Automatic annotation (TrEMBL):
<keyword id="KW-0560">Oxidoreductase</keyword>
<dbReference type="InterPro" id="IPR023753">
    <property type="entry name" value="FAD/NAD-binding_dom"/>
</dbReference>
<feature type="compositionally biased region" description="Low complexity">
    <location>
        <begin position="285"/>
        <end position="295"/>
    </location>
</feature>
<dbReference type="InterPro" id="IPR036188">
    <property type="entry name" value="FAD/NAD-bd_sf"/>
</dbReference>
<protein>
    <submittedName>
        <fullName>Predicted protein</fullName>
    </submittedName>
</protein>
<dbReference type="InterPro" id="IPR050346">
    <property type="entry name" value="FMO-like"/>
</dbReference>
<feature type="region of interest" description="Disordered">
    <location>
        <begin position="1"/>
        <end position="28"/>
    </location>
</feature>
<keyword id="KW-0285">Flavoprotein</keyword>
<feature type="region of interest" description="Disordered">
    <location>
        <begin position="281"/>
        <end position="300"/>
    </location>
</feature>
<feature type="domain" description="FAD/NAD(P)-binding">
    <location>
        <begin position="33"/>
        <end position="266"/>
    </location>
</feature>
<dbReference type="GO" id="GO:0016491">
    <property type="term" value="F:oxidoreductase activity"/>
</dbReference>
<keyword id="KW-0274">FAD</keyword>
<dbReference type="Pfam" id="PF07992">
    <property type="entry name" value="Pyr_redox_2"/>
</dbReference>
Length: 424
């Protein structure tokens, strides 16, 4: 893009990287890394990289604060999370207990999360975040050094800039850009004769006064109505909030998201354990993509469950989990494995087990498989996954705590040192 007369000239960032192939470890740690996005993932990614010795880490965000979807100005009043205290926090930065935790079961508000992320950034990332920095383009760098060139501009001053970095980490998430269907856009509404505001949910409470002003009684003495389009959590929260403020509200949707709203949370042994590994999750409405048919989704879910089962039943060089050791090292376990394999249809199931990439795999309820995903990640790094204690029988019911990951960085560091000694 060539700057016009009204645009500020490009300003090159003051930091760059040396174009050297295979630099030593000290050079690698000093090379610049850009993290795009200052939400929870961007913040913890920057902190972990700094802890691992990378000294030139920069976080870029177009917002004026940290939090992403939990940015202070995006959190609406009376917003409550389904998450419970101690489930939404980083292992080495404790989250304070919310007020009235005894009566609410420790449920968090949007303000609790927003305040927590601000505290995390102040504690660990002071001076590492560039606010109001919009990323316009990312392209490969030229020359031996390679790397990346990032074009940005300051949303307040308009100053354009190019920065050269060695690595880029994208932490922009899936909800960073508001999605308004073209038929419902402000332009389409204006062409149709609609004179009221068209506001996305991400800006609804920031523009709440505008909404109130637009629904005041006009000359016809007929109260105006607010129409909320969508059945997600934000739509339901906004509709309830407006209705409680005495504003006539209508909500329309094709599908409504399912939420578990109970006065008190389930016991920790149920909601904070690996019990879900042994209870296949039921298919939930709204979790498949719009282009996926019901038959395709059911086939995919069935295949996913088969892959889960056979990954445990299949022989492996290293038996990592208690269940695998039971099934492959005991008399009873071997009988279970043999009977299970014999029950599979040879022609229809076994080819798909040998070539699972031929069929699409997607989890019907990924939020039920968080413990399994974490265990798999730990095992992929050759770190112990059975951190909650217990034996092969009681292990699934043990409560999983975030504190189990507090030493993860040190464990990884020891593993790397061991690997370096073996290479020497």
């Amino acid at each position: 893009m060539t700057p016009t007369q009204n645009q500020s000239p490009l300003k090159h960032a003051s930091f760059s990287y040396p174009p050297r192939p295979d630099p030593p470890q000290q050079k690698v740690h000093s090379e610049p890394i850009a993290i795009i996005g200052a939400g929870p993932v961007g913040l913890i990614t920057a902190h972990i990289l700094i802890r691992d010795g990378f000294s030139n880490v920069r976080v870029l965000t177009r917002d004026g604060g940290v939090g992403g979807v939990w940015l202070e100005e995006r959190v609406y009043p009376s917003m409550m999370l389904n998450s419970i205290h101690a489930q939404f926090q980083f292992s080495h930065h404790p989250l304070p207990l919310p007020p009235n935790a005894h009566s609410t079961g420790g449920r968090l508000t949007g303000t609790d999360v927003s305040t927590y992320l601000q505290s995390f950034a102040r504690t660990f990332l002071e001076g590492k975040i560039r606010f109001w920095c919009s990323v316009d383009q990312i392209r490969r760098g030229r020359g031996e050094g390679g790397g990346w060139v990032i074009k940005t501009h300051d949303l307040r001053t308009g100053m354009k800039e190019e920065m050269c970095v060695r690595r880029v980490v994208l932490c922009t998430g899936g909800n960073s850009t508001p999605n308004i269907p073209p038929p419902l856009s402000p332009l389409s509404a204006s062409r149709a004769g609609f004179k009221g505001p068209v506001i996305h949910s991400s800006e609804s409470f920031k523009r709440f006064d505008e909404i109130v002003q637009s629904v005041r009684v006009g000359r016809s003495n007929k109260p105006r109505r607010v129409l909320v389009v969508g059945g997600g959590k934000s739509a339901q929260d906004i509709s309830a909030y407006l209705a409680n403020q005495g504003i006539s509200t209508t909500i329309i949707y094709e599908k409504a998201d399912m939420f578990l709203a109970v006065p008190k949370p389930l016991p920790k042994a149920v909601r904070q354990s690996r019990l879900s590994l042994y209870l296949p999750p039921p298919p939930l409405s709204g979790t498949s993509s719009p282009s996926t048919t019901a038959s395709e989704q059911n086939a995919s879910d069935t295949h996913t469950e088969i892959i889960r089962l056979t990954s445990i039943l299949a022989p492996a060089i290293e038996l990592r989990t208690p269940v695998e050791r039971f099934l492959h090292t005991t008399w009873l376990g071997s009988k279970i494995v043999k009977r299970t394999w014999d029950s599979f249809p040879r022609k229809s199931v076994r080819p798909s087990l040998l070539f699972p990439f031929l069929l699409p795999v997607s989890c019907a309820a990924p939020h039920f498989g968080w413990a399994q995903a974490t265990d798999q990640l730990l095992e992929d790094m050759y770190l112990p996954s059975m951190r909650s204690g217990g034996n092969w029988l009681t292990w699934p019911f043990k409560v999983v705590s975030i504190s189990e990951l507090a030493t993860l960085g040190e464990e990884r560091r020891v593993k790397r040192q061991e690997e370096e000694r073996r290479r020497m």
